[in-house]
Design a protein that fits this description.
Elements: H1 2-5, H2 11-33, H3 39-65, H4 74-85, H5 93-110, H6 118-135, H7 143-152, H8 158-181, H9 185-190, H10 206-230, H11 235-257, H12 267-283, H13 287-303
Helix pairs in contact: 2-4, 3-4, 3-5, 4-12, 4-13, 5-6, 6-8, 7-8, 7-11, 10-12, 10-13, 11-12
Amino acid sequence: MIANFFNKTKPIVFFILASLLFVYYILAIANFKFEAFSFLWLAQQFGFFVLIIGFLLISSFIIKKNTLTQNNSYALLLLVLLLGTFYEAMFDVPIVIANVFLLLGFRKVYSLRTISATKLKLFDAGFWFGVAALFYAWSIIFVLLIYVALIIFERINVKNLIRPIVGVITPIFIYFIYCFAFGSVNDFYNCWEFNFNVNYTSYNNLKLLLPISVSLAAVIWSIVTLTPKVSVSGIHIKRAWRIVLNHLIFAAIIIAFAPIKNGSEMLFMIFPFSVIITNYLRISPSENFKNLLLYLFLILSISVYFL
């Protein structure tokens, strides 16, 4: 059964999941994204897929390094299934690039649980979030997650408050100098057009309505079930849980204001969704329920290509 197979981390699991992701990618191209064939087009598609694999690898590293879940592959499985479900996310290049850089920043934020190299972590987190914002302006909201982490990990002091700001400003200033030097300052200003859209009628489409409804129901149920249990756990677990929840909140804000609502914006939500639901699956005593939930996400990820 699917729950039993992904209950452990094995080298073959990542290969299987990468292959499944490739199948989703090919299905999406064949059904919705195919253009006139050329070697340039083929190279672009290959490059996009490499970015997605990078997203998966960095997510896996963050989860394992910071023990956000136990020793299982449910989070990676859910990441792949959700990517397959919200297939538009695999083809929106600015959002994919922004999320890869955001993950590099999240890696530093979550690692603040240890006291080593705090100064560098704060600068690096701000730096990567600043780079991400150059590709997708709303990404700048995640800078607030750094300060939430400082509060949660009790690292508040004047220098620590300033370091993320310096980190954020650094890539933005470098890009401004680059644009100024080559007479393309307008390109810099265009990066900071915070266009927004609060019209959610596109979510009435079954391709989005069904997976969003199921994902929200699963994550809300997981939060309601897990939070009381986490509150009586060790301090490290409680702190990590609070950061994941705040991560989810900031992702929801970005999605709420995203100018284009076609499913690609859901990429911001996939990481915290997967971590939260995985932790619920970990405590679920019923193997049948685990299988049911995972098969439900699998069926959803396939059905969107036929709705």
